[in-house]
């Protein structure tokens, strides 16, 4: 058995992998750009005239779509490289947020939230597979915690007050534009970082 490395050891080794550094930078850019829409989209629906019952439906439609989508994407990741699936998910989200910016309406935004369930499925499955392929098996759990819990939590803590200020100052409509800009930037960073296999001292990728 390989000894389980600590948080600092895993984080230090990840800093030497350009693809993981690019992935972390991508998550920060996309997270900061999209947090306004994520946190205040239901408030925007209310401003557009949606009833409370309809807002409740809007809050669950993406989850309904995610159930079959996860199964579909799981099979796709077995055939295609997870980095390619991640790029597809980012492109899908950019298009969805652009549609919300240019054609804002209650029913369109609800439809976009449903479609985002597909993009989220692509993103989640591919992200886990991508991290697993670039870490040793005894590092993967810690790396997943860093990318799926620690980093998003920091983004939420730091970004939500800024998003609230932007919401008050500019309105929800312009938060969609910030999200649209963030996705191509993140996509470019991930693509530039590369996705070739990395040599791992002491074992193969997990």
What does this structure look like?
Helices cover 82% and strands 0% of the residues. The protein has 206 residues and is mainly alpha-helical. The longest helix is centred in the C-terminal third of the chain and has 31 residues. The C terminus is likely disordered.
Order of helices and strands: HHHHHHH
Average residue-wise pLDDT: 84
**Strand portion:** under 5%
Could you tell me how far the N terminus lies from the C terminus, measured between alpha carbons in angstroms? Answer: 14 Å
Structural class by secondary-structure content: mainly alpha
Main β-sheet description: none
Which residues sit in consecutive blocks of at least 5 with pLDDT less than 50?
195-206
Number of helices: 7
What percentage of residues falls in helices of 4 or more residues? over 70%
Note the overall shape. Answer: globular
The count of strands amounts to 0
Rg over CA atoms, rounded to whole Å, is: 18 Å
In oligomeric terms, what are we looking at? Answer: single chain
């Amino acid at each position: 058995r390989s000894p389980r490395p600590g948080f600092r050891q895993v984080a230090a080794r990840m800093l030497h992998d350009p693809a993981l550094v690019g992935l972390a930078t991508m998550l920060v850019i996309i997270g900061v750009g999209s947090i306004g829409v994520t946190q205040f989209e239901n408030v925007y629906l209310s401003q557009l005239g949606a009833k409370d019952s309809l807002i409740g439906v809007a809050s669950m439609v993406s989850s309904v779509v995610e159930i079959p989508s996860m199964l579909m994407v799981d099979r796709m990741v077995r055939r295609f490289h997870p980095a390619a699936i991640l790029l597809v998910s980012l492109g899908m989200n950019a298009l969805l947020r652009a549609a919300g910016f240019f054609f804002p309406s209650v029913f369109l935004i609800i439809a976009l939230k449903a479609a985002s369930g597909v993009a989220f499925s692509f993103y989640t499955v591919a992200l886990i597979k991508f991290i697993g392929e670039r870490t040793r098996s005894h590092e993967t759990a810690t790396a997943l915690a860093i990318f799926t819990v620690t980093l998003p939590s920091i983004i939420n803590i730091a970004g939500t007050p800024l998003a609230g200020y932007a919401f008050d100052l500019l309105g929800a409509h312009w938060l969609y534009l910030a999200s649209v800009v963030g996705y191509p930037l993140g996509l470019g960073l991930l693509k530039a970082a590369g996705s070739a296999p990395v040599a791992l001292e002491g074992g193969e990728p997990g």
